[in-house]
Amino acid sequence: MSQTGLGARRSSRSRCWPDGGIIFTLQGVGVLGGSVMSGVTFWAVAGPVIAVAGLAITAIGLRRGLAS
Q1: 6 in a domain, yes or no?
Q2: Whose CB has fewer CB within 10 Å in the chain, the N or C terminal residue?
Q3: pTM of the full structure
């Protein structure tokens, strides 16, 4: 059964931060090339921070959603 409405939007948003952080990390360390972000140390450091923040936000959201 697929989600529709607000639940589906929350789900897709919660995946955006961790996925973006992983992509930023891979670009920063030079695994994903073809971008101005490729090989830039800032993104190699910021990517994991963004991914962990996204996971924390997702976990908090899930806990609040299950509690209500």
Answers
A1: no
A2: N
A3: 0.71
